[in-house]
Amino acid sequence: MRGWRAIPTMLRVGLAEAVAYRAEMIVWVLATTMPLIMLVVWTAIAEVAPVQGLQGTWSSKRFVAYFLSVFIVRQLISAWAAWQINYEVRQGVLSMRLLRPIHPVISYLVENVAYMPSRLFITVPIAVVLVLSGGAEHLSHRPLIWVAWLVSLLGGWLVAFFANCAIGALSLFIDSSVKVMDVWLAGFFVFSGYLFPVDLFPPWLRVISEWLPFRSQIGLPVELMTGAHDDGELWGLLARQWGWAAFFMALTFFLWDRGIRRFQAFGG
Amino acid sequence: MSPWRAPVRYLALLTRQLRTSALLTAQYRADFLIDGVISVFWAATAVVPLFVVYGRGRDTGIPGWTFGESLLVTGWFVLLQGVLDGAINPGLQAVVDHIRKGTLDFVLLKPADAQFLVSTARFQLWRVVSLVNAGVVIGFAFHEIGHGPSLLGVAEAAALLAVATLMLYSLWILIVSAAFLVVKVDNLTYLFSSIFDAARWPGGVFRGGLRLVFTFVVPLIVMTTYPAEALLGRLAPTSLAWSLLGAAAFAGFARTVWLGSISRYTSAGG
Question: Can you spell out the DSSP letters for A27-56?
Fold first, then answer.
């Protein structure tokens, strides 16, 4: 595979693009401030009386630590391939990608990775605030958990990215899958732990969330950071997350290889 | 020349634009079903967080707001989301495209006000479904509260609906004006709706600087919390008066910024 040698160059190009469109990135970061709104909502509630979850009580400080972690994880697992693929299929510019000796999904992946370093400019200051605001006592102090956290962060990003690609590849069959992505996002908001910790879910909601992939994206890395899991359940949860990642990866390549035969490069 | 000539002409133009949108939407009938299902789904996800927040009892959640009262705010949020997605966002997307491709020239050349033309260019008429959803949520909220609103409350809320629509629209004009400066801003719609998401919570949870921002800069509290308070009969008349004044000032400001932006517009691309 000669194409693989192109990856370092593609990473450099992507990085330069990220720097060039830094205003766009600020727009994106502003668009993901929902965890900070939820932080305000939940601390207002917890100040009246601590909230009782399934595993212990939630003081306002614990909410602060949780939602700052959500914000950090949300930045690091960002993926937007679904919109990108939809756009490129509709405009026909996907044909340019098909000419290159590298699988389009891999090229989307490389572009996505190249945007990550610039995200650190946002996440590192927030992480400092998290530690200084007294959130440190609600973070895990065990090295093993932090290693697992890195694994779960990568897993969470893989789930997010390949779910994006699978939904994006649907546009090869149904013209536009942006609406499917809307449904995915609605599920994501409710079940991932983005708006509220899974620990506070009513039982019926928790049962549903166990069977959905959304918690793998945000919930698991954040729960590990904030020390919600012990070693026993850790591996099971990680295995489930990577299972979802493998599932969406397989689905992506399956849909892509079927769908690309139908692609007619109208427009471009 | 009769003083009514301009309004009549613009009313005729609006009817024409609405008819074009209606024809366009009628062309994609399958979208009606999909959009309908999705909007019901979105309304449901707007309500679910309240069940989590009020999981421990109908009175233990957001300080100063019972479950039913919070639900009223959410219902109003669903209503405004329908207005936003149906009447405001489609146009926004179209202008951003125009600016990027340079085709805004064709709009500017037409013998009518450019702001009027771009604002009325596209409506997603299927979004009427959102209004039904909002009605259901608000109905459920009043069922929880146990009594209906007063006539005065309904009148105040209706006035505030007009205020909120005008404010959303003015914010939209301001954001579009930003698109003249930074061209690659495809995500403006997304940004707009995600900031608007904060409006689903009663304004009481925001304090300090955030409260000031959400009252005066991005007046989310005026848009959803005030109408809910009006329906509950506890909105101070002065707040209503200030909202009306504020909306008018906001609209005037947006108009000035828009005029400034198009005067500096130097057609890109096409």
Answer: HHHHHT-HHHHHHHHHHHHHHHSPEE-SSS
